[in-house]
Amino acid sequence: MVFNILTLFPGMVEAGLNTSILGRAAEKGLIRINAVDIRDFTENRHRRVDDYTYGGGAGMLMQAQPVYDAFLAAAGGRKHRVIYLTPQGRLFTQEYAAELAAEDEITLVCGHYEGIDERALEAMNAEPVSIGDYVLTGGELPAMVLVDAVSRLIPGVLGNHESADTESFGNGLLEYPQYSRPEEWMGMRVPEILLSGDHARVDAWRLEQSLLRTKERRPDLYEKYITEHPEEKAGKRAGNRKNTKKTHTGLQ
Fold it and tell me: pTM to 2 decimals?
């Protein structure tokens, strides 16, 4: 997959995405990060890309011309999805990440100041997307979040193909607690069932823990899951925590 990222800070994007798992994926040719400097397309001799807003108001606005010309240079006339990172957009979720992972190319537009001239967004047919209900200084961090979340769903990017399926949100629930060696640490022991070698019982325990954790930490997700899987609501699975033998579950 090709990720075109229109930004005022290409170095920030490249440094953040060309390391670790994503860096190796790029080396293998599974993904390609194309960071495009919007300033390279301004017609202003001082490389300015912003100006005052019509109608007054605080702050500056990124102009349509350099943003759109950067888009044309990156996209080359190819029809593909264009995403504008903004707190006003559709909430980015794991389900949305899976939807985007089926694409061959995506252009991500990073705004700054008071945002981008609406005409450029309309000309690019940009989808507004938000990573959460808060405001950041620019779209670079949200763009990197989106690239990371989408890339790990592309076959071959993760070493273990099951990893993306078993993690939080893979089945609509938060992930169950995980443990590693040693069996006992600071007086806390790994739950005995995980040492049993009984894979069916381990799977059942993990589902139960996922249900309990989701009910406690994300009741909104829990209610949605139970609505779709009413058979899991029984006390034997996601009953009150106080009726369940308490074990140390760590943090995830």
Answer: 0.84
